[in-house]
Amino acid sequence: MIEEKFDAIVVGAGMSGNAAALAMAQRGMKVLQLERGEYAGSKNVQGAILYADMLEKLIPDFRDDAPLERHLVEQRFWIMDDRSHLGVHYRSEDFNEERPNRYTIIRAQFDKWFSSKVREAGATVLCETTVTELARDAHGKVIGVRTDRRDGEIHADVVVLAEGVNGLLGTRARLRERPKPDKVALAVKEMHFLPRETIEAHFNLKGDEGVVVEAAGTISSGMTGMGFIYANKECISIGIGCIVADFQRTGETPYGLLDRFKRHPSVAPLIEGSEVKEYSAHLIPEGGYKAIPQLYGDGWVVVGDAAQLNNAIHREGSNLAMTSGRIAAEAIVQVKSRSHPMTAANLSVYKKMLDDSFVIKDLKKHKDMPMLMHTNSQNFFLTYPQLVSRAMQNYVRVDGTPKAEKEKVTLKSFVNARSWSGLFGDAFRLARAWR
Predict the structure, then answer these.
(1) pLDDT for 148-160, tens place per residue?
(2) Dihedral angle, C-alpha 304, 307, 308, 310, nearest 10 °
(3) Which end of the chain is more exposed for a tag (fewer CB within 10 A), N or C?
(4) What are phi and psi of 105, to 5 degrees?
């Protein structure tokens, strides 16, 4: 057993764990961070989007040395059928600002850098260390962790669980339920390497400008899911994710969906000639507000994906993870500064602070969207994309047919597919869930 006692132990070195460990170390707390990988980010090869505002609150000058890929100047949303897409693009020169708002990153590189900042702040970081269970006192209060190291048990006033959506530590300790298949998505990604100038030509970029493509439609075969493409400096991250319960129901495979997505006529030219060097799969919490578990207890708090803090509607995860980690740290520091014990009653300040943040307010706003999308996946991800594609082709194709007749054909196709009551019902449910 390590005789040294810590103010806090953080389990995990992802976005939320690094944020929590850093924020506590910056405030003078004695922090131990445990990571099962060889180094922070070693098990994470995917590309991602970094939201600058959240990181600036922790590291104001992060742009000086963080391994950033491209700052985003364009967002594309595609509604796809098997042979076409209808796109909405937003591009602004305003995003070529001195301090850009969003960046693409490669998590393996970024997490390693983030962890180095945790060490610089004074925290102790131990990698290749698996936490096997929580240590408790005779009253059930968490007083530390047990690990697979020879020295075993390590004590601390509070444990921060930042172990990810599928972390077993919290579920084994019965602090939360294991995520249900309809509350979690399985996403697969590939990294396609191309010369920098080729990527810039394919996406109409210059310098360090970047673009993100997010796509929904028949690419998910009627399941609740989305595809995505991130332009990095010398590679393209491309992937697709769907609800696990849908994979179980349909028998579809993630790699099968990804292969079809890559071969789509709108996607294939973007990655033509590329070399695939990395493939990864990971789980993403998709349950939203209604899936958030108990966030605190006697001697523990939970943050990030382990707390189901992911905004699936706006595709935001890393910012919620970093924010929850920082807020948890601030709550713990507050309790410690008052010389109060780390009881559930005192740590409840974490939930109060989180409830006042954009994290919970945004998730609460869209609390009904996950269920709506899942129970109506055939309509929203198959029927409507096909109808929209036919309507657009009918609109732009000039073949001598009077426009009034074309409009009647388009309207009839929607009514035949969903009926008037179905159309109005879908619109009403979508509007009500969105507000």
Answers:
(1) 887 778 999 999 9
(2) -30
(3) C
(4) -140, 165
- Domains parsed from the chain with CATH numbers: 6-67+106-177+293-356 (3.50.50.60), 368-434 (no CATH)
Residues whose CB falls within 8 Å of the CB of residue 207, separated by 6 or more in sequence, listed in order: none
Type of residue numbered 309:
L
Whether 214 shows a pLDDT value over 70: the answer reads yes
Among 360, 303, 18, which residue's Cα sits nearest to residue 164?
Answer: 303
Res. 1: pLDDT tops 60: no
**CA dist list (Å): 207 to 12, 61, 200:** 35, 21, 8
How crowded is the C-beta side of 75, counted as CA atoms within 13 Å? 10
pTM: 0.93
Q: Whole-angstrom Cα distance, residue 309 to residue 321?
A: 7
CB 394 within 8 A of CB 409: yes
What is the β-pairing status of strands 142-147 and 131-136?
Answer: antiparallel
The C-alpha atoms of residue 296 and residue 299 are separated, in whole angstroms, by: 8
Residue 97: its H or E element: none
The alpha carbon dihedral of 224, 229, 230, 232 has a sign of positive
**Burial class of residue 198, CB neighbours in 10 A (0-12, 13-18, 19+):** middle
Rg (the chain; Cα; Å): 23
Instruction: Kindly give the interhelix angle for 318-337 and 358-365, rounded to the nearest 10 degrees.
Output: 130
